Amino acid sequence: MAHILIVGEGLNGLTAALQLKKLTSQEDWITVISQEQCGIVKTSLPYVSVGLRPMREARIELAPLLKRHKIHHIVSPIKQLHPLRQVVMLENGRRIPFDYLIIADGMEPAQDHISGLRQSLDMVHSLVSQDETMRAQLAFQDFLNTPGPMTVALAPGSSEYESAYQYIFNIDGLLRRYRLRDQVPIRFITPEPFLGHFGIGGVGHSNQLLEEEFRSRQISWICNAAIDRVDPSAFHTIHFDDDGLEKGRQLLETRYGMLWPSMRVKPFIANVEGLTNNTGLIPTNRLLQSLAYNNIFAIGEVVAQHRLDPTPMEAPQPCSDFLRESMTSTVAGNLAEIIRARYPLYEPTGNGFFMIDFGRQGAAFLAVPQRPPRNIDKIYQGRFVHVMKRAMERYHVRKLRAGITEPVFERLLFRLMKVPRIKQKVA
């Protein structure tokens, strides 16, 4: 009998728990520790923040779902992790022993990296949590009554490119619908060296595509940029050239700001000696097993990915929903083999697939593998992407609520697209 402990209230942890329940025996014990009672589909939060979708459509209640599948659930912040003693200490003083640990969500926003941000929360908003999203929604309704300049920004170190681009396009369409677009100049700040870089050097003609979209919508942008500080009415930005040297500063008067801050691992991970590297992330082997502790696995943004060619500003590789699911399937499959005293055989493919909704149109980006050079490097455009994006998010929530992680037809679909989630090695 093995006790598998999964840390993370996100959908990564939920998916890992459901998959492991099917792959392990009834004698094995699975526990999920989360800080919240529900999981959130983060790619739906841009819609929720502007009132295009209710929060209930992006939320999955964890307790009844996990109970139905006989998976233990604990709601509590984590104070300490002791890998050698194989125990997790909770804030309430409880000790949770484990045989294997899966870190499925160990990131938190580094809001203190930007001066003045905490004092400007009435103007600057973010989508890092359910509460922050609802606060942003209320502020946006007030903004519609007294419109003004808007700034949408990605801080260096943030990889939420999909959400940021989707947000700005949907904001543009919504303001046009309300006949307020002429009163709202929109500016976009990004650490990417060019629009559509996505932290992976771009996909196909993504640079040209997004520049055309921004120009047609009269949205101005600043690349290779960082936020120096924020005050209650403006963003203070710094611009850099291609060599990383400062070339100018700019003050952007702002009535409403949306910011994706950089992320960092939580203290209970960072404080474990040898678990993280100098970038603050967890280095793993191809099996997503920690290099320092072989009974610890990692999923999602917390995994230290191979660095691409350096950019003037920190623009990390994204972890799309497809890549997260690939990591989750890899860890679940390998851990099930290890518990049975077999050789772990699975590796993530590293393929990238994500969609950006432009409002009435959209674009789907397919990068196989995500890191260049690639075998497939394509963009599919059209209204069908807009429809498919919204339908896929609803489908994703409903299948998880039903306790289904990867239906057969979904596996067949990605195989037909020649985009498998995992690859199996011969022992």
Helix-strand blueprint:
Blueprint: E1 3-7, H1 11-23, E2 29-34, E3 38-40, H2 45-49, E4 59-61, H3 62-68, E5 72-75, E6 78-82, E7 87-90, E8 95-97, E9 100-103, E10 107-109, E11 124-125, H4 130-145, E12 150-154, H5 161-177, E13 186-189, H6 206-216, E14 220-222, E15 225-231, E16 234-240, E17 246-253, E18 256-260, E19 263-265, H7 267-270, E20 296-298, H8 321-339, E21 346-348, E22 352-357, E23 362-368, E24 376-381, H9 383-401, H10 408-416, E25 422-424
Parallel strand pairs: 1-2, 1-9, 2-5, 9-20, 11-18, 12-13, 12-18, 13-14
Antiparallel strand pairs: 3-4, 6-7, 7-8, 10-19, 15-16, 16-17, 21-25, 22-23, 23-24
Question: Care to give the gist of this entry?
Answer:
By secondary structure, this protein is an alpha/beta fold.
Describe the structure.
There is one protein chain. The protein has 427 residues and is of the alpha/beta class. The protein has a domain at 111-262: FAD/NAD(P)-binding domain (3-Layer(bba) Sandwich), CATH 3.50.50.60. Helix content is 28%, strand content 26%. The protein is built from ten helices and 25 strands. The chain has helices at 11-23, 45-49, 62-68, 130-145, 161-177, 206-216, 267-270, 321-339, 383-401, 408-416; strands spanning 3-7, 29-34, 38-40, 59-61, 72-75, 78-82, 87-90, 95-97, 100-103, 107-109, 124-125, 150-154, 186-189, 220-222, 225-231, 234-240, 246-253, 256-260, 263-265, 296-298, 346-348, 352-357, 362-368, 376-381, 422-424. The strands form eight sheets. It has a five-stranded parallel beta sheet with strand order 5-2-1-9-20, with helices on one face. Helix 1 (11-23) packs parallel to helix 8 (321-339). The longest helix is centred in the C-terminal third of the chain and has 19 residues, at 321-339. The radius of gyration is 21 Å and the shape is globular.
